Amino acid sequence: MADGKLTHFNEQGRARMVDVTDKDVTARAAVAETIVRMRPETLEAIRSGRVGKGDVLAVAQVAGIMAAKRTAEWIPMCHPLPLTGIDIQFREAGNDRLIIEATVKTTGKTGVEMEALTAVSAAALTVYDMCKAMQKDMEIGPTRLLRKTGGKSGDYARPSEQA
C-alpha cells in the first residue's frame, strides 16, 4: 500500500500486485454478463442440439467455470482466490441473442469481479468456437459487471439496462 492507498504501483512507480494483507476477510460475490449476437438459425441449432461439435451450452458452462478458477493466470496482477461458488446461466433474448451470466463467490480479502467477467468471456468465446463453422460473424458484447457485494468498497448494482 503506497501512501495508504491500494494501488498497482510501488513507491518507484513500477507495477506490483496490490497488497491486501490488512484487508478484512468478508463474503464477496459478483455477477457479470455478456451477450452473443447471432443469426436466428444459429441460436436454433444451439437450442435443438444440432451443432456438430456437441452440446454448446454444456461445454460453454464448463469453460466459464474453468476460466473463473484460473483468472489470476490470465489477468496480470489479479489475486488468486479460493472460489466458493461459480454458476453460469444462459438465456435467450429475442431470436438472435444468447445472454450469458456468471455468479462467482468467495470468502476472502478481495472481490471476484474479474472472475465473473472472465467466466462470461470464456463461455462466450466457447459458444463462438463451437458455432463458427455455421456463422463466423457472431458478435460478443457488451460484457459488463451487473452487481457485486462485500468488501470495503461496498455493494454495487448496475443501473437497469435493456439487453
From TrEMBL:
Keywords: Lyase, Molybdenum cofactor biosynthesis. It catalyses: (8S)-3',8-cyclo-7,8-dihydroguanosine 5'-triphosphate = cyclic pyranopterin phosphate + diphosphate. The active site is at D129. This is Cyclic pyranopterin monophosphate synthase. Substrate binds at M77, C78, H79, M114, E115. Pathway: Cofactor biosynthesis; molybdopterin biosynthesis. Gene3D superfamilies: Molybdopterin cofactor biosynthesis C (MoaC) domain. It comes from the Bacteria. Belongs to the MoaC family. Residues 144-163 are annotated as: Disordered. It comes from Thermobacillus xylanilyticus. Its EC number is 4.6.1.17. The keyword Transmembrane does not apply. Catalyzes the conversion of (8S)-3',8-cyclo-7,8-dihydroguanosine 5'-triphosphate to cyclic pyranopterin monophosphate (cPMP). The gene is txxe 123-moaC. Homohexamer; trimer of dimers.
